[in-house]
Design a protein that fits this description.
Helix content is 26%, strand content 29%. By secondary structure, the chain is α/β, with parallel strands linked by helices. Strand 7 and strand 8 form a beta hairpin. Helix 2 runs antiparallel to helix 3 (102-111). Residues 1-61 have low confidence and may be disordered. The longest helix is centred in the middle third of the chain and has 21 residues, at 74-94. It is globular. It contains 5 helices and 12 strands.
Length: 245
């Protein structure tokens, strides 16, 4: 029986920009019908991630048109933050204490969209049936060789919305925009033991293993992938996919 409440005492303190958060503040994903939660407490802030969702909710999203928006601010940015809090909670519950710098990840939410803005990046939000169900970002990163390439970041789809092409549509839109921004390649890193389905999806559109390209905070279980943007990639389903912004 899994432990549904894990408390990490030795986390890196949150960035000073998070000092406005009071003890007991909650980060709730607010996605779908939530039957249970996986709670992780850090510095008095509780992250909540849905442990289950209604089958009816899943079926509703499965056949809904997908709209992908470029996010700059407003309520769309709030929705992205909510999704990424759920992503952070998932990582915290799926890895050993100390593997993930939760403080750094939470601090990043304050800076969004950060460097993930046009013309060199984007922060994308997928919406179906009026609900924000997934997000992804890309922005510039400098390789050890000095080359500046695109990096795919913060890919997350709510559990109730998986298996309905939202993840693939987000990735393909990010790839298209990275090409338009004149990048020659797009890189990403992923925890292979935690997110095997995501890695399978990345590989299905053409990403291939590559050398470690950064040493800042990547743990040893990280896999690094690269996609050359001058090569064709698998196409996303287009019958229920609309682009905005």
């Amino acid at each position: 029986m899994p432990d549904h409440k894990r408390k990490y005492e030795d986390l890196t303190p949150l960035n000073a920009r998070l000092t406005n958060l009071k003890s007991g503040d909650e980060f709730a994903s607010g996605m779908g019908t939530q039957k249970g939660f996986l709670n992780v407490t850090t510095n008095g802030a509780t992250l909540k991630s849905p442990a289950a969702c209604d089958e009816a909710e899943h079926m509703l999203h499965k056949h809904s048109p997908i709209e992908i928006r470029n996010v700059i601010g407003g309520t769309d940015l709030d929705d992205v933050r909510s999704l990424l809090r759920a992503y952070t909670a998932f990582l915290a519950a799926s890895t050993s204490p100390g593997k993930i710098d939760l403080g750094r990840r939470l601090a990043e939410l304050i800076d969004l969209p950060g460097t993930n803005t046009p013309p060199s990046g984007a922060l994308l939000l997928a919406i179906a049936n009026g609900k924000s169900l997934g997000c992804v970002a890309f922005g510039p990163v400098t390789l050890p060789s000095g080359e500046i390439v695109a990096e795919l970041r913060r890919m997350w789809v709510s559990p109730e919305a998986r298996s309905n092409s939202i993840g693939r549509a987000l990735i393909m839109e990010a790839i298209s925009r990275a090409r338009s921004a004149s990048y020659t390649a797009i890189y990403l890193d992923c925890l292979y033991a935690v997110m095997p389905a995501a890695i399978k999806l990345y590989k299905s559109v053409g990403f291939r293993p590559t050398d470690r390209y950064k040493h800042d905070h990547s743990v040893e279980e990280t896999i690094f992938l690269r996609l050359d943007l001058d090569q064709p990639t698998a196409t996303a389903p287009t019958s229920n996919y609309a682009r905005e912004g």
